[in-house]
TrEMBL record:
PANTHER family: THIOSULFATE SULFURTRANSFERASE. It holds the Pfam family Rhodanese. One of its GO terms (molecular function) is thiosulfate-cyanide sulfurtransferase activity. InterPro entries: Rhodanese-like_dom, Rhodanese-like_dom_sf, Thiosulfate_sulfurtransferase, Thiosulphate_STrfase_CS. This is Sulfurtransferase. The lineage of its organism: Archaea, Methanobacteriati, Methanobacteriota, Stenosarchaea group, Halobacteria. It comes from the Archaea. Residues 13-123, 153-257 form the Rhodanese domain. Residues 118-139 are annotated as: Disordered. Keywords: Repeat.
């Protein structure tokens, strides 16, 4: 499973770790980046042109990773400067398109927290392109709208909306509980909450390891972070609604508001 690793862990790794910075190019070039990091901007792998939801096609993904010098066996660390939410999307994309999740790592914290205590670089590394091959896995956590609709009535499942309070109040999938993805983030460290604190936040929303957890947001960006955190905490049964509210509303499915409940 994708894990969340400390800055110290990253610093101790050798050159075999492929570090991916998913910020915009101007940030990567102008503000500096982690030593050895390559730049794969978020917008480049959020195409929605060939895969499900906002996922890139197999060919688009293979071209991006090949250019970045990543192959199918690479250990990958991703980071951003937004508490990890954009980097988590990169890693979830990699998992859904067949990269071994045991080789995927999210930096605990982000670029801002890294640069407070550790060195950065301004020059892009020399990268030898590879021929990355996409091998879609036999099973994935992806679920469709019908599965999501059924989850609200399943006593063994919890349907989770990871957006902000105001968005949830304005309209959410019937039966969903609210968990703003940022509730699992420590604003001071810019990483995830300590384990026991994170589990307490989740339990307060009825999200416990014994249940099947079904995640959605608007376009599957924010649920990527929550998915990675849940898996890191040991949750084994986590479903991922890639279509999220974008697809749900396109299909004219019902929404609840605070007034309608």
């Amino acid at each position: 499973m994708t894990d969340i690793v400390s800055a110290s862990w990253v610093a101790d790794q050798g050159a075999d770790l492929r570090i991916v910075d998913v910020r915009d190019g101007w940030e990567y070039d102008g503000l500096g980046h982690l030593p050895g990091a390559v730049n794969v901007p978020f917008d480049e792998f959020r195409t929605g042109s060939g895969g499900e939801g906002m996922l890139p096609s197999d060919d688009e993904w293979a071209a991006l990773l090949s250019e970045a010098g990543i192959d199918a066996d690479s250990e990958i660390l991703a980071y951003d400067d937004h508490h990890g939410v954009f980097a988590a999307r990169f890693l979830v994309t990699a998992e859904l398109l067949g990269h071994d999740p045991e080789r995927l790592h999210l930096l605990d914290g982000d670029f801002s927290s890294w640069q407070l205590e550790r060195e950065t670089e301004s020059e892009a590394p020399d990268v030898e392109p590879t021929e990355y091959g996409v091998s879609p896995p036999e099973t994935t956590p992806l679920v469709d709208a019908e599965t999501v609709a059924d989850a609200a009535d399943d006593p063994d499942a919890v349907l989770v909306d990871t957006r902000e309070d105001e968005e949830y109040a304005a309209g959410h999938i019937p039966g969903a509980v609210l968990l703003d993805w940022r509730d699992l983030v420590d604003d001071e460290t810019r990483g995830i909450l300590p384990r026991e604190d994170a589990l307490a936040v989740l339990e307060s929303a009825g999200i416990v390891p014994e249940k099947r957890i079904v995640l959605y947001c608007n376009t599957a960006r924010r649920i990527s972070h929550t998915y990675v955190v849940l898996r890191h905490l040991g949750f084994e049964d986590v479903d991922f609604y890639e279509g999220s509210l974008t697809e749900w509303e396109e299909e004219n499915r019902p929404l609840e508001t605070d007034e309608s409940e």
